[in-house]
Specification:
The complex is a heterodimer. In chain A, a hairpin with an 8-residue loop joins strand 13 and strand 14. In chain A, helix 5 packs parallel to helix 11 and helix 6 packs parallel to helix 7. In chain A, strands 2-10-9-8-7-3-4 form a seven-stranded mixed β-sheet, sandwiched between helices. In chain A, strands 13-14-17-16 form a four-stranded antiparallel β-sheet, with helices on one face. Chain A has a two-stranded parallel ribbon with strand order 1-15. Helices cover 38% and strands 15% of the residues of chain A. By secondary structure, chain B is an alpha/beta fold. Chain B folds into three domains: 67 residues, no CATH class; 207 residues, Aspartate Aminotransferase, domain 2 (3-Layer(aba) Sandwich); 132 residues, Aspartate Aminotransferase, domain 1, CATH 3.90.1150.10. Chain B contains 17 helices and 14 strands. A seven-stranded mixed β-sheet of chain B has the order 1-7-6-5-4-2-3, sandwiched between helices. Chain B is globular. Chains A and B meet through helix 1, helix 2, helix 3, helix 4 and helix 5 of A and helix 3, helix 4, helix 5, helix 6 and helix 7 of B.
Chain lengths: 455, 523
């Protein structure tokens, strides 16, 4: 017997007798004999809990986490502090172990939390309709593209090169199935430069702040999109939205993005959640679960999953999306985190980030051989170009247990020696000073070596 | 649910209604850099006019608020949850502990592979284990949930046909399919063609033959089906589908019935998705997170999403080679060079459909599912499926002994697999209560009702999946409760019609919610 099952010998006899068969094997007699596996699965034997823990601990120890080095990695997921109360609440069985709330009378906790979450996302994005979550950031961008396709049936997407490379690729993967074309709008000095738009364009997609950290002029982009009769989709990061004009206010029709920064762990990329917000006009095309307020038989306020005629379990092939299981627990972490920050706290956090990021730009920009990639406003992240081989510089930093950031050349060949540096509230002035010292020294050594080679 | 606390102390307020100007839970770290005027850093034209109207609450209030909310949820750790097609099995506590280890939880997804060897090794081992369970050698862990795996699978099918220069426009799905199947087909740019079900509950082979032609790209199938029955004609189905050059897709939602007993790959399936939040114990979280890895055959492998986790074995003399698989085939690895990490992310996949999402997938889910597979091993996984099927058949027999099947007959009189479908049509006719009413009355008895009104082809359907982690006593108790609700309805159907009575709220007006949507709090 495994430790998660509980059929004793006595149980087994009684149960088989009740069913009216001789053995467990008899229960599988409908499976054609030729298909039955005639050997055990080639897997290692089962282990005791202690042994499993030890194996998983050993695997964990073979990773370099943000606790093991001073990390300035961002590029889509960020090392923000996750307050203790978030983990304490989402680990409660009542939130951790139920299914999607199909029976609202016994799921009011989860449903109300979704409603509270939707309210917060609406407030941050400036759009009236939020769903209860989608998978994560890049697939949310693709899902938003699908809404645009359903909405106006046009055949082309115009996507800024400032949109996260993973989002652009996820969109391209899906767009192929829809027979749609994806055109790229280039970046000019850090910001999106829109091409002329015509009636073939379904939607323009930009990111705020963009992948290089720059704050885009969303209003101008939305105006251009709308002038061409296209939608405007804004992929955004929710924390900088504490300071920035909201996508909705700037004219975005859809605002989507990665929610990891709201109280979710890095977890090597997931699970986190994607958020998805829309105008009233697009409400009935939004994918996934949406919680809505209503009343019970006694007139008492309650919450249900609503507008379900959009969804796969009702509408099947005519659904606006195939999504079923999303990321409810991660979205719950998101709304708890936002409550923890609160109205003033979220601004204080964002101001701390923008000030420290400005300080980091100043320190790094002053280093010989380090140039800021652009001078546009930034909140938490910025790019630099190194006058030295970036891979070697990064390795030198890592010898000092510093991870100086993301090598932009991986996704942007034109920025081969570029580095993208994220400054969350967990990186102090002392940390930034240390980065500047170590990066500066590494660049200097590499430049000397280069000069030596040239001589 | 109906405890003294709920009634006495829960005021039902939202977090926004608890807000009071000046309260806070957050203290910002010190501003330790020279502060510059905000206007210099971010021009006013780009700035929000005022702070976002988030709640102003203290930490104790937040904790109490969400703890109170939690008490308005029914959960698997508290009671029986026989929700068909959802596999609500126990979620081992160990998994939360190991997933929270900083080496897993605080690992940045863009950490370079040389410094993420533990994570990549775990993912590689999980791929190998899932491939063995499915009988299909190549695995991508990337999709985020079952429906995402389905989308990957249909896009792989498209890539496979296009690579052969074929244009196909239709995908077949049985009329018993999960709603995600037809929805996926549309999202992947294909037309859905429905295939019927025969009198025994199997795919109607004549209908399938009539509809399978060279315009068909794929048949999506769940086996055991959503009726809880094994498709006995699966070999014939595979022959028909492959005969017209289409692929066969396996919806893995019901994999819990067959682990270690038979394998989709051996049945002829080309593509399988797993629901790690069903058979492999990732807690459902009230609607996610999950994960929907896919396993595929050799002919589909070139199109798998990017990047793939690969292993490069060190063969001595500074040479690295692709490892051989136990069955003699080649694994999905590539030859590496000395000094390269043993496990790596392979982006060099020219025929790949591309990414479906960011980074490497829901890694935290992989940690839990891997821990589960390590805990159980081959024998344990087989026992899981054996007991899941035993429990389902026992519960069906036990309900029959209670007389429940007189009003709720089994949709098909066959041995079931891990779940079974009853039809509440006679109950509705004779006792004047619908399946929905039975479900609502069960809430008052402290169990989660089974899935209702699915599959669509069964009138007043009740889909019951007990899972292997329930005891015989729990199944006995559930049978008695259902019988009691029916007895009660015989005396007075109004009781069930008005149920539930003991829950935090009573029946909710869903029509009004949809007619005048209120989707957020007015602030």
């Amino acid at each position: 017997m495994t430790r998660y099952t509980s059929v004793t010998e006595v149980d087994l006899r009684e149960m088989l007798a009740e069913i009216g068969v001789e053995s467990v094997d008899d229960l599988f007699e409908e499976i054609p004999a030729g298909l039955r596996l005639d050997r055990p699965l080639a897997l290692d034997r089962g282990l005791a809990e202690q042994e499993v823990y030890e194996e998983l601990r050993t695997l964990a120890a073979a990773n370099t986490s943000t606790e093991d080095e001073l990390s300035f990695l961002g590029a889509g997921m960020y090392d923000h502090y996750v307050p203790a109360l978030v983990e304490s609440i989402i680990e409660r069985s009542e939130f951790l172990t139920p299914y999607t709330p199909y029976q609202p009378e016994i799921s009011q906790g989860g449903l109300q939390a979704m409603f509270e979450y939707q309210t917060a996302i609406s407030e941050l994005t400036g759009l009236p309709v939020s769903n209860a979550s989608v998978y994560e950031g890049p697939s949310a961008v693709a899902a938003a593209g699908y809404v645009a396709k359903l909405h106006n049936g046009r055949g082309r997407f115009v996507v800024s090169r400032g949109v996260h490379p993973h989002s652009r690729e996820a969109l391209a993967t899906l767009a192929h199935g829809w027979g749609m074309r994806v055109d790229e709008a280039p970046l000019s000095v850090g910001a999106t430069e829109l091409p002329a738009l015509d009636e073939r364009v379904s939607t323009v997609i930009v990111q705020q702040p963009n992948f290089l950290g720059a704050v885009e002029d969303l209003e101008a982009i939305a105006r251009a999109a709308h002038d061409a009769g296209a939608l405007m989709i804004c992929a955004c990061d929710p924390l900088p939205l504490a300071l920035l004009r909201s996508p909705g206010e700037c004219g975005a029709d859809l605002a989507v993005g990665e929610g990891q920064t709201l109280g979710n762990r890095l977890d090597f990329g997931g699970p986190s959640f994607g958020f998805f917000a829309a105008t009233e006009e697009l409400m009935r095309r939004v994918p996934g679960r949406i919680a809505g307020e209503t009343r019970d038989l006694d007139g008492k306020r309650g919450f249900v999953l609503t507008l379900q005629t959009r969804e796969q379990h009702i509408r099947r092939e005519r659904a606006t999306s195939n999504i079923c299981t999303a990321q409810a627990l991660n979205a719950l972490a998101g709304v708890i985190y936002l409550s923890w920050l609160g109205r003033d706290g979220i601004v204080e956090l964002a101001e701390l980030m923008i000030q420290r990021t400005a300080y980091a730009q100043e320190r790094l920009g002053a280093i010989d051989g380090v140039t800021l990639l652009h001078s546009r406003p930034v909140v938490r992240e910025f790019g630099v170009a190194l006058d030295a081989p970036v891979e070697r510089v990064v390795e030198r930093c890592r010898e000092q247990r510093i991870n100086p950031g993301y090598r932009l050349g991986i996704d942007y060949p034109e920025l081969a020696d570029g580095l993208l540096i994220a400054i969350t509230e967990q990186r102090t002035r002392a940390d930034i000073d240390r980065l500047a010292d170590v990066l500066g020294a590494a660049v200097a050594v590499e430049r000397r070596e280069l000069a030596g080679v040239r001589e | 649910m109906s405890n003294w606390f709920t009634a006495a102390a829960d005021d039902g307020l939202t977090i926004y209604e608890r807000s009071k100007p000046g309260r806070r839970a957050f203290a910002a770290p010190a501003m330790d850099v020279p502060e510059r005027p905000l206007d210099e850093l971010l021009p006013a034209a780009l700035r929000r006019a005022g702070p976002p109207r988030l709640p102003e609450v203290s930490e104790p209030e937040i904790v109490r608020h969400y703890n109170r909310l939690s008490k308005r949820n029914f959960d698997l750790d508290t009671g029986f949850y026989p929700l068909g097609s959802c596999t609500m099995k126990h979620n081992p506590k160990l998994h939360e502990r190991v997933a929270a280890l900083p080496g897993h939880a605080k690992l940045h997804p863009l950490q370079d592979p040389a410094r993420a060897q533990g994570a990549l090794e775990l993912m590689w081992r999980l791929q190998e284990a899932l491939g063995e369970i499915a009988g299909l050698p190549h695995v991508s862990l990337q999709p985020s949930a079952g429906s995402h795996g389905e989308l990957a699978g249909v896009l792989l099918t498209r890539a496979f046909h296009e690579d052969r220069g074929e244009v196909r426009t239709k995908v077949l799905t049985p009329d018993t399919a999960h709603g995600t199947n037809p929805a996926t087909v549309t999202m992947a740019g294909y037309e859905v063609v429905k295939v019927g079900t025969d009198a025994q509950g199997n795919v109607d082979l004549d209908d399938l033959r009539a509809k399978a032609d060279d315009e068909v790209a794929c048949l999506m199938l769940t086996n055991p089906s959503t009726l809880g029955l094994f498709e006995t004609g699966i070999e014939e189905i595979a022959a028909i589908v492959h005969g017209v050059g289409a692929t066969l897709y396996y919806d893995g939602a019901n994999l819990n019935a067959i682990m270690g007993i038979c394998r989709p790959g051996d049945m002829g399936f080309d593509i399988v998705h797993f629901n790690l939040h069903k058979s492999f114990t990732q807690p459902h979280g009230g609607g996610g997170p999950g994960a929907g890895p896919i396993a595929v055959s050799d002919r589909i492998e070139p199109y798998l999403p990017r990047p793939q986790v690969v292993r490069c074995d060190h063969a001595g003399n500074g040479r690295w080679t692709t490892p051989a698989r136990p069955d003699g085939g080649e694994a999905g690895g590539r030859a590496g060079r000395a000094g390269e990490p043993n496990f790596d992310l392979d982006y060099d996949r020219p025929k790949s459909i591309g990414r479906l999402r960011g980074f490497q997938g829901n890694y935290g889910v992989f940690v839990r599912s891997y821990a589960y597979i390590r805990s159980l091993g081959a024998a344990g996984l087989r026992e899981v499926s054996e007991v899941a099927v035993l429990n389902a058949n026992y519960l069906l027999a036990r309900l029959r002994r209670e007389g429940v099947l007189e009003y709720l007959p089994a949709a098909y009189e066959r041995l079931c697999m891990h779940e079974f479908v009853l039809s509440g049509a006679p109950m509705k006719r004779e006792l004047k209560i619908k399946t929905l009413d039975l479900a609502k009355r069960l809430l008052d008895h402290g169990v989660h009702p089974p899935t209702v009104y699915f599959p669509l082809i069964v009138d007043e359907a009740l889909l019951i999946e007990p899972t292997e982690t329930e005891t015989k006593e729990t199944l006995d108790h559930f049978s008695e409760i259902v019988a009691e609700v029916l007895r009660e309805a015989r005396d007075d159907p109004a009781v069930a019609l008005g149920a539930p009575y003991t829950t935090p709220v009573r029946r909710l007006d869903e029509a009004a919610a949809a007619r005048r949507p209120v989707l957020r709090q007015r602030l």
